[in-house]
Amino acid sequence: MFWKIIFLIVSAFAVSFASNSHKGFSDPQACDIPSNIISEHFEDGFKIKKTDNVCVFHILNRLEEVIATAIYSDPDETVPSGYGGKLKAAVIVDTNDRIVAVVQGENNETGSYLKLLEDKGFYEKWNDLHVEEALLKEVDAVTGATMSSNAITAMVQKNLQIYSGIEKYSAKKTASWISFSDTGSLLIFILGMFLFFFHRKGSSIRIFHLIGAVVVVGFWSGKMLSIEIFRAWLQTGVHQSVFIIFTVAALSMVATFITGRNFYCYYFCPMGAFQELCYKFPVSKLRIKPSFFKPFRFIKRIFLYTLIIMMIFNLAEDFSVFEPFSAFQFKAAAVSSLVLAFSTLAVSFFIPRPWCRFFCPTGEVFDILKKPFRKKIMEENDGET
């Protein structure tokens, strides 16, 4: 068992190294802007010239005349993170101080969230506004990609502030380290810990905990563990906006390792809770011998190892498509995630936790962390192994 844990640790270092090699942020001291970010807004032959101001660039035409200015600064502690960590956005301003475009820059964001913003016309909300108007503009976040929206809005404000020298980016726009939804998730976690250690005493409130996990953690917060979020943490680190779910991950791993029982999957994960709720519906169940499920443990393991290899060799940009979790934020979810989620829930009426038992690579991480020297773990009534 120890070799599996060592494998996970080595894999984490390998993914972190490879990911940053493939998709790292530019040197903050250099503050360069890739030409491909702004090329679609100008004719061929334009040039980029850095100004004396940090992260401000003049766009020149063939005659060496300034036709626009681009601001492309680095995020700081006042800028909230997206789902995948810090991100950048370029603001292009014409010679009349009107905004030509807001363009997505370097990021480690889940692709489906950025695609949703594009489809909703989020980046065009600042177009043609005067810089002073844009500094005062309140832009609503896009439902289903709230964290990405807020992060980009903050970067636009920061870039405009640098350009104009006007301090309009108020403290109220700086993300708090814990939101209302995070507080709700924390309460679900605390209740889950109580049920984890005193599940017999708390059996009467189990149903309410399951509903809370689905509604609060899944649909409201949208912050849950997945292979995609592990990848994002390895690429850009753990930022303030994901402090609660990172704490949940760390404590869940400790609880699982010490007790030999999988805490996260059975006492916090909204997809696990949703499957369990479906199975409670009074319909005829499929009677399958426990021995039937044993071979599927290898499928989960192979699935996890395959995804790790894909991360190391940068074979996919968005790993949320391989799991059903993003379906809770369904407007930004990939079709594959929605299909996985709905098919899983449909089967859950007849078989307990099919995704957890057969396929879940995130759950396999916790299964590997089960107490190495404990050879056999009694199954609980809810099907935990």
Model description:
The protein is α+β, with helices and mostly antiparallel strands. The chain has 2 domains: 2-16 and 177-368, no CATH class; 27-73 and 79-173, no CATH class. It has 15 helices and 5 strands. The chain has helices spanning 2-23, 35-38, 111-119, 131-136, 146-164, 180-197, 206-221, 227-236, 243-259, 263-267, 270-279, 296-312, 335-348, 354-358, 361-368, and strands at residues 47-50, 56-60, 66-71, 89-94, 99-104. It has a 5-stranded antiparallel beta sheet. The longest helix is centred in the first third of the chain and has 22 residues, at 2-23. The chain is elongated and about 80 Å long. The two termini are 16 Å apart.
Notable traits:
single chain; 385 residues; alpha+beta; 5-stranded antiparallel β-sheet; 15 helices; 47% helix
